[in-house]
Amino acid sequence: MLCFMTTTPPRVLLASERASQPWPDGGGMTKQVVIYPAVADTSNFDWRVSIATVDGESKFSSYPGVTRWLMPLGADGLSLRIEGEVLYLPAREAFAFGGEASVNATRIKNPSLDVNLMVRTTYGRGSLLALVLHDETAIAAAPAEFVVILVLDGQFSLDDTELTELDAVALEPGSDAVLVGDGVIAIARITMA
Predict the structure, then answer these.
(1) Are 1 and 177 in contact (CB under 8 A)?
(2) DSSP three-state, residue 17
(3) Is the pTM value of this prediction over 0.90?
(4) Among 145, 151, 64, residue whose Cα is nearest residue 115
(5) What are phi and psi of 11, to 5 degrees?
(6) SS3 of residue 185 by DSSP
(7) What is the pLDDT of residue 1?
(8) Worst-scoring range by mean pLDDT, 22-26, 110-114, 156-160?
(9) Which residues contact 74 (CB under 8 A, 6 or more apart)?
(10) How far is CA 139 from CA 27, 100, 101, 149, 184, in A?
(11) Mind listing the domains of the chain with CATH numbers?
C-alpha cells in the first residue's frame, strides 16, 4: 500500500495512459512518463522521464546540452557502445552520460526496457536510483526539487488508486510522501540550479 501526506497532492501517472512514440532519429520507441514544463516537447524540455524499448542494435538520439541517466530494467541489463567503448549496464543500475555522446545499444539478445532521465544542464542536475522498499518509507522533494517515483515491481497503492508495474507518481517541489508497501521503485530527483 502507498500512502501520502503532503500539502501539494502528488500526480499519479498511469502506465496504461502512455502512448508509444518513435525516437527522434527513429531507432526505437519511447513512452513519456513526464516532461517539464508540461507544454514542452523533446526539443525544448527542462527535464524529462521516459521509458524506452530497445529491441535491437540502435543508435541513441543526440541531445546536446542535456545530461542523461539510463537504467536498464530487463534481467539481461544492456550493453552500450559509448564513443567507441563498450560498457555493460546491469539491470536496475543507472549510468549517466552526456546527451551529445555517440551511443549505440549493442549485443542485444532480448528486447529490453530502460528508464531514461534527461536534464538540461542549464536547468539543473539529476539523479536516478533503484530502491527496495519495505513497510513505510518517507520521500520528500526539497524546495527546489522535483521527484518522480516509478514502480518497478511490488504492491503499492495511493489512497484508492492501485499502482501497477511502471505506474509513476510525481512530487512537486517542497512536497513529501510516505510509501507503505513492499517492492522496488526507481526514483528520479531533478534539482534546479
Answers:
(1) no
(2) helix
(3) yes
(4) 151
(5) -100, 130
(6) strand
(7) 45
(8) 22-26
(9) 91, 110, 111, 112, 113, 114
(10) 35, 32, 32, 9, 14
(11) 17-120 (2.60.120.10), 124-192 (2.60.120.10)
